[in-house]
Amino acid sequence: MKRRSIRKKTPARKASAPPRQDRKVLVLIVSITFALLVGAAGFRTFLTSHHHAAIGGPYALTDGQEHPVSQSDFQGRYTLIYFGYTHCVDVCPLTLETVSSALDELNTKGNSVTPIFISVDPTRDTPQVVKEYVENFSPKIIGLTGTSEQLQPVMEAFHVKMQHHSGMGSKDLIDHSSLLYLMDGENQLVGMIPVDSSAHQIATDLKRLLLTHS
After folding, report:
1. Does the domain formed by 52-213 have CATH 3.10.620.30?
2. Is pLDDT at 169 greater than 60 in this prediction?
């Protein structure tokens, strides 16, 4: 009768716990994934309910009358800042039109917010070009532009990213960050609003932000 050899099972090694830094990264990834699964509502809540002190800063640009304009000119007033360019074929004009409608919906409350359009295309967007562009949407909107040297620190302060796509002359397109930044009377960020919001949603977000910040 043959004896059956009995093999001793080697106990499985326990997986070592990931370093603390890796666990932090994992938690961050899970949190972001959850936020994405929650959808647009969760994303809007995140943007409009957190004060991001690292976003925003001083600026020194030029308006449509070629007058120098800085953040100090809006001391004590709320500003709603949007970065774009006049040759934008879709997002920029739609955003400015929607913002204009949202401020009209707010009636007198909308008068406390000054919408500002800052061009990221200094080569084509002269002060006169920007002035004529924003006037197509609302007399309330202030258009600002400047040299590349003037715009660069402003875009860095607001974490605005852009990428040129070369074409034929005026057909050059620019991919750029698209968010609405609500700044208070001290040029501190109150909140950010997604540009794909409806006019009513922007008005609702602005009303809530103004109420919580007052």
Report:
1. no
2. no
